[in-house]
Each structure stands twice: as C-alpha cells, then as structure tokens.
Automatic annotation (TrEMBL), chain A:
Species of provenance: Natrinema altunense (strain JCM 12890 / CGMCC 1.3731 / AJ2)
Top-rank taxon, per record: Archaea
Protein's recorded name: Binding-protein-dependent transport systems inner membrane component
Principal localisation: membrane
Transmembrane segments: 35-58, 94-115, 127-150, 170-188, 233-257, 277-300
UniProtKB/TrEMBL annotation, chain B:
Reactions mediated catalytically: D-xylose(out) + ATP + H2O = D-xylose(in) + ADP + phosphate + H(+); L-arabinose(out) + ATP + H2O = L-arabinose(in) + ADP + phosphate + H(+)
Subunit record text: The complex is composed of two ATP-binding proteins (XacJ and XacK), two transmembrane proteins (XacH and XacI) and a solute-binding protein (XacG).
Designated name of the protein: ABC-type D-xylose/L-arabinose transporter
Enzyme class label: translocase
Length: 307, 339
C-alpha cells in the first residue's frame, strides 16, 4: 500500500469515527460522544490558556526584537545557560522548595495519621484550621508572617520579653526562616489533602495483624502503613513541590530569598526588561515540572518488600 | 499454647454495652467457637483478647497472668481475619516470616520456618508470589501460616471462612480443623455460621446481646439448648407450649412422656429430626415445600397453629395444602430451662 492510499484510509477512518461520534448508533459510539462532550471544554481551555501562550513563550524566547517579536535569536537561551546568577537562582529555588516540600509532606503525614486514625474532639475545626491556608493569597500569608515574626510581631515581642533581647534583633519575618514558615504554612494543606485520601484506604486490619505479630506502632508504620501510603506521599510531594515552585506573593513581599518566580518578575519589570529571558526561564520551568511529574509517578508503583 | 480466661469481661462504648460480664475459659489446646448474631459482641470479645480493646471492667488472663492492660504487640496472639489482612507489599514468604522478624529471628531461620509452615499448609509453591495474585482460599492459608509462625499463646480467628465459596469452605474447614488439632493450638473461633463452629470447635459459646447464653460441646448445644434463643439460633427448632404434670407434657394436641423439673407451663424445643413423618396421630397442614436435593424441607402448621419445620427425604411428592400424619419422638425434644 502506498503512503498516499494509507493516508487516505486513515483520514477515512477518522471521518467515519467522527461521524459515528456525532450521530451514534451503538452504545460504544454514545460512550465516545459522552467522552468528547465532557473533555472538549477542557481541551478548548487548555489550548487557549495553556498551549497557545506556551507557543508564544517559545517565540518570545527566540525573538531578536522582543517588543514586536521579530527576527530570530538564541541569545536569551545563551544568556540563561552561561550566567552564573541564573544557576544560583535555580539552585536556591530547588533546595528551598525541596526542603519546604519535605517538611510539609512530613507534617502532612502526621496530621493525616491523626485525622484518619483517631476520633478527635472538634475534628471539623481541626480540618478547617489545617485546610484554610489553601485559600489564602500569598500576600496574606506574608502579612501573617510579618504580624507574627516582624519587628512588632507577636512572637518576636513575646520572645523579647521572655529573654530580654531586642525585638529588632529577634525579628525574622524577612529572614529566610520567616519565608520558609510561610511556604510550609501554604503547602501543608495541599499535602494533607492528598494524604488524607490515601490514609482512608489504608488496611487497618493489616496494621492490627502486624501489631499482633509483635510489631510496635513505629514498626507497624514503617513496615505496613508506609508502603501503603507511599503512592500518596509521592503524589503529595509532586503536588506540593509544584505548588511551592509557583509561590510568588509571599516571596514578593518578604523578599528574603531569590527564587525563580521572583526572578521572572524582575526580568519583566520596568528597568530590567528582558521578556525573552523571562520566557526562556518560564519554558525551563514548565519542562522541569512536567519531568518531575513523570519521574515522580514512576515511584508510585509499589515494590515488594522482602524478608 | 496457653489457657485463656475471661473474667467478668465488660466493654461499653458510652451507653452502648457491647460485651456484658462475659465469663469464658479457653482451655489449653482447645478450639472454642463463639457464635451469635451480628452485634452480639463476639468480635469485641476477640479484639479484647487481642488487646485492641481495653475492657471497661473485668480481666483477661493468659495462663493465670493478667494481660488486661498489656499492649497487643506484647500479648503474643495470632490473628486471622475474614478479609485476610495480608501485607500486600510483601511476598507470601515475607508475610509468614514477619512475626519472626519482629522477634529478631535471623533471616536464615525465619526463612526456614516460613517455608516449613507454607509446606504444612500446602502452599509452598506460592512463597514468592504477592498476596494479591492469590485466590481467597490461598490467601487465608497464608494468613493462618503467618499467625501460626510466632507460635502464639492463642490463635484468634475472626470469621475466617466467610467470603469463600461453599465447597472450598468445607474443604478448608476440615483441613484447618485437623491442623489446629494436630498442633494443639488454643484457639478462639468467631463465626456467625453455627455449622462451621460445630464442625471445627471442641466447645461453643453462644452469645446474644453481649452475654453468654450457653457454653458446651456442639452436641450439648444442639441437643440441650439452654433457652429459646440458643434453640433457635443453633439449627432450627420449633418451640412448643405445654403443661408438665407427673412426668408428662401435655401439648394440647398430643401428650409426650417427657420429664420436666417442675410441673406447670413449660416450653419444649423440637428439632426437625424429632418429628417422624408418615405415621402418627398428629395431622399437620403443609404450607410450604422447599426441595433441597438430598432432602425436602417442609413448613407445616400443627393443630394448635404452631408453625413447624420438618425434614423429609428427597421426595418431591409433597404439595402445599397436603395434610400429613406425624408423631413426635419424646427422646428428641428438650425442655427449656429458661428464656
């Protein structure tokens, strides 16, 4: 069969499928139509809000003239690859968000364990307290950190009174620790949300069997619970890490650590206007996120634990 | 193996009393069945022995040692669940060796002992498989091997056969019963299936509403039920109202030479086998016929309007509306002590 006749046959098959989907006669056709109806709005939105802007970013990053987006140049990518400051920002972002993810997921495991395993008084209030930061804008989180750890902050002044030290010396809202606290506070609800769902699926009787066989609570968690919740931990880590990379409002206000989002902001700000570099950073960011997601999902597969 | 004693065991959840003053002894090497309807407290009793529930009152003793407040991991009990509760992320061998690992047994030794148990339960060829790839019967064998591996003081089985198909259940029941008897395991066998309990257990405790209604051998429970609840729960019984007088019981439509402790109004329990069909002075009207292959189960009305369950041979000649003659074998009815 020639290439041309093969292509014609493929087009014909697609046309037949489209016609059957539009005017279904079998249950399979109707199912296909339902899938199409439910997914089309998403793909339309993804095209307009995602794929087209991404293509624009590619074009901007390769433009010689960035105001009218004309000509072609690899200069932005060359600058990104050879400038030490950008590598430093990337490393800053990775270790800081990585550490915040680690702490948030660890705290999320503890909170989910308590929420799912034990009957708590005021459980709804606890759930609300844990989950509400998810709805807070980063700017508000930054403000909360200032109210707590700033020069007039509650905690700062409480420690100052208790230790006799100066509140000015103790203020840590705009130190990296204050920013870290803000990150963890924002990320914890995301980790908990995923982990609670995973915990609800844990085989409680297998845990009881382990304890009857002589395992302490910690050994039971390590040998039985942890392997069961590991896919949830990976999923929570992916979600949390991605969300952490995207935090902007908090870091914009507190400014104590230079991360990727702040760098992009600076690249497109008046005074240092480099939209091609900002576009290149954005593309690296997207590629990195996609890669992290795929690599992370490979770890979700369970592995046998041998004797 | 140990003797397990429950002393006045009571477990309440707020106002809800799940177990109410249960007194039970599981003798060394004995399989004690605990039967009763849903919510009667049998699983709570088992969980209290395992240490997952702390009794509101009473004590749990292993060989005379009070373990009431000892945590589960220090009680040395084997647990077998209806849902198998195997460790899905481990191989079958690792499942069986898990308890030994927790005891600090060397890798070589626990591997050897796990393989011995798997061979004993006839599943040696499954050692390297994951539990999720096994059938229900195979998974339950793994669960049993895992529980036996630690040579527990007592083996606690919570509805282990529920969920298996009838043929497999019967085969596994016989195999497990023989294995536990051979090993001399002290076991508590919780089930709602009285036939299973009768087949497997040395003695049976019948629970209702958190209290023990009767403890005895399967034959004692079946032939001499302590009260109407036991008579109805274990097997099917017809309760007949009568008046006892001078070594006889007058049922109104017939008289039986049955001795009661006291004269006056009494109730007697009659199993289907107590009714002899085909001859006798009593006329019963058939209201339902169920053909079961090896026998035919009839529901009929006695002259005093009592509904009775009868077993006939596997004949399909009975019809609804038939009037059949029958007699009652006085040796097979039992005067109930109380309600």
């Amino acid at each position: 069969m020639s290439v041309r006749s093969s292509a014609t046959a493929s087009v014909r098959r697609v046309a037949t499928l489209a016609a059957a989907t539009a005017r279904p006669t079998t249950e399979r056709d109707r199912e296909r139509r339902r899938i199409a109806i439910m997914c089309l709005p998403f793909f339309a939105l993804a095209t307009v809000a995602g794929f087209v802007p991404l293509a624009m970013l590619v074009r901007i990053s390769l433009a010689e003239e960035t105001v009218w987006i004309e000509g072609w140049s690899l200069e932005a990518w060359r600058t990104l690859a050879t400038t030490a400051e950008y590598r430093w920002v990337a490393w800053n972002t990775l270790w800081f968000v990585g550490l915040a993810t680690l702490v948030s997921v660890a705290l999320g495991v503890a909170v989910s364990h308590v929420l799912e395993k034990y009957e708590l008084p005021f459980e709804r209030a606890v759930v609300a307290a844990v989950s509400f930061p998810i709805a807070l804008p980063g700017i508000i989180v930054a403000y909360l950190i200032i109210v707590l750890l700033g020069r007039q902050g509650l905690v700062t002044n409480a420690i100052a009174v208790a230790t006799g030290q100066s509140a000015l010396d103790l203020a840590s809202a705009t130190a990296i620790t204050g920013l870290f606290l803000g990150y963890v506070y924002s990320l914890l609800p995301r980790a908990t949300m995923v982990l609670r769902g995973t915990y609800a699926e844990v085989n409680v009787q297998a845990e009881e069997a382990a304890r009857a066989l002589g395992a302490s609570r910690w050994q039971t968690f390590y040998h039985v619970t942890f392997p069961e919740i590991r896919p949830g931990i990976v999923a929570a880590a992916i979600l949390t890490f991605r969300s952490g990379l995207a935090i902007f409002g908090t870091v914009l206000i507190l400014q104590s650590h230079r991360v990727l989002t702040l760098q992009i902001h600076d690249e497109i700000s008046v005074g240092s206007y480099d939209p091609d570099i900002a576009a290149a950073i954005g593309l690296v960011y997207v590629a990195f996120i996609v890669a992290v997601t795929f690599v992370g999902l490979r770890f979700i597969e369970n592995e046998a634990v041998e004797i | 193996m140990s003797e397990v004693v429950l002393e006045s065991l009571t477990k309440a959840y707020g106002d809800e009393v799940a177990v109410d003053g249960v007194e039970l002894t599981i003798h060394d090497g004995e399989i004690l069945g605990v039967v009763g309807p849903s919510g009667c407290g049998k699983t709570t009793t088992l969980r209290t022995i395992a240490g997952f529930e702390t009794p509101t009152q009473g004590r749990v003793l292993f060989d005379g040692v009070d373990v009431t407040h000892v945590p589960p991991e220090e009680r040395h009990v084997g647990l077998v669940f209806q849902s198998y509760a195997l460790f899905d992320t481990m191989s079958v061998r690792a499942n069986v060796a898990f308890g030994l690992k927790m005891q600090g047994v060397s890798t070589a030794e626990r591997r050897k002992r796990a393989d011995e148990l798997l061979a004993l339960l006839d599943i040696a060829d499954l050692a390297d498989r994951r539990p999720t790839t096994l059938s229900g019967g195979q998974q339950q064998r793994v669960g049993l091997a895992r529980a036996l591996a630690i040579e527990p003081h007592v083996l606690l089985l919570d509805e282990p056969m529920t969920g298996l198909d009838a043929k497999l259940k019967t085969r596994l029941r016989d195999e497990i019963g023989n294995l536990l008897a051979d090993l001399g395991v002290t076991a508590l066998y919780v089930t709602h299936d009285q036939e299973e309990a009768m087949a497997m257990c040395d003695r049976i405790a019948v629970l209702d509403d958190g209290t023990v209604e009767q403890v005895g051998t399967p034959a004692e429970i079946y032939r001499r039920p302590a009260n109407a609840f036991v008579a109805n729960f274990v097997g099917s019984s017809t309760l007949l109202e009568g008046v006892a007088e001078n070594g006889h019981v007058d049922l109104g439509f017939t008289e039986l030479p049955v001795a009661a402790e006291t004269d006056g109004s009494i109730r007697v329990a009659a199993r289907p086998a107590a009714f002899e069909l085909g001859e006798g002075q009593i006329e019963a009207d058939v209201t339902n016929v169920t053909y079961l292959g090896d026998r035919t189960q009839l529901t009929a009305t006695l002259p005093d309007d009592t509904t009775v369950t009868l077993h006939a041979d596997g004949s399909d000649s009975y019809r609804v509306g038939d009037s059949i003659p029958l007699s009652i074998d006085a040796d097979r009815v039992h005067v109930l002590e109380s309600d």
